[in-house]
Amino acid sequence: MHSKDKIAIIGVGRWGKNLLKTFSVRAEISLICHTGDSATDEWLKSEYPHIPVTHNVDEVMENVDISAVCIATPIHTHSSLVRVALEHEKDVFVEKPLCQDPVEAMALTELAQQKNKILMVGYIYLYHELWQKLKTEIAQEQIQNVLFTWEKYGSFHEDGIWNLAVHEVSLANDLLGTPTVAQIHPLISTLGTHDAYTFSLEYPSGAKAFGLVNRLSSVTKHTITITTQTQTYLWEGNRLLRVEKEKEPTIIAESTTVPLDRECDAFIESLHCRKAPITNGAQATLVTKIIADAFPQT
């Protein structure tokens, strides 16, 4: 750990707590900021009694000793917090998506470049051990189609498309580039906005990506099936499989690492080497543009 890695955590909800725990063993957490919920204050006092807490984000931004911030707040707050952090000369890790406006996303990316600051967006699956293994396996193959299925229950506080589909789009783009056609078809909005939907993407190579996302399911299941000219691969949970007709699937690899650990390690590495991470502003801007263009109502 470098002594200069002084990070502030902004947002201590469910995922913010995970980020706090993971970054706290990799850097010095100088300050924690949240909206003032008393239960959160009590939890922080119990779990992290040595770390100062504020309810005023200006205290984070104006603290010149803090060199980086980790933002895990509601999606609609991302762009303003990222902008202020960059303007205050801080490196930024922000949960996905960067924002919901592609013009603003590009402006934030350009601001980070102008300030020579790291801007990393939390597309965690791109750092998954099995995703990296899968890319190695198919590096010499021509992809024909990719099928995403994601079933879970909740949470409902964010738009389902901006909260979940962005992950799948980021993965498809990582394999196939920039789509020429993108469509999103909402199915159900029951407990939240866009609780179930399908999407499709077409790429210059002719490859297509399809997905079904349902956050009203009693089943928890997230799979990615990739078909090439010669093979079919299935990533499900902690296993990467090769699937063949009338044969038992062959296990290619099983994950032994925690994706969030790998993601946070990547941010720390970017702080040290001053090189943009794979989930940088440009990558995040493309995802935002695809979603915004495919379904402007979101």
From TrEMBL:
Gene Ontology MF terms in the entry: nucleotide binding
SUPFAM superfamilies cross-referenced by the UniProt entry: Glyceraldehyde-3-phosphate dehydrogenase-like, C-terminal domain, NAD(P)-binding Rossmann-fold domains
Domain Gfo/Idh/MocA-like oxidoreductase N-terminal: start-end pairs: 6-123
Name this protein carries in UniProt: Gfo/Idh/MocA-like oxidoreductase N-terminal domain-containing protein
Organism this protein belongs to: Candidatus Vogelbacteria bacterium RIFOXYD1_FULL_51_18
